[in-house]
Design goal:
mainly alpha, 3 helices
């Protein structure tokens, strides 16, 4: 089920992308910026799940509370 939704989403993305390539330069740029934002958000989510949290990091608020 998830695979079918993913394939459908990719097909819709490619259809919109091909439509954007045939339009003006502003539409191309806006579509590129929007897709880059989505990709950056997805990469951030994946790396937050895969990589362990940094336990050695102490924020400045916690440092002030200890003093």
């Amino acid at each position: 089920m998830i695979l079918k939704i993913g394939i459908l989403a990719i097909e819709i993305f490619l259809a919109v992308y091909s439509l954007a390539l045939s339009d003006s330069l502003l539409v191309k740029f806006l579509f590129f910026a929007f897709s880059a934002m989505i990709i950056a958000f997805a990469v951030t989510k994946v790396t937050n799940k895969l990589l362990p949290s940094d336990k050695d990091y102490v924020s400045t608020d916690q440092e002030h509370e200890k003093l």
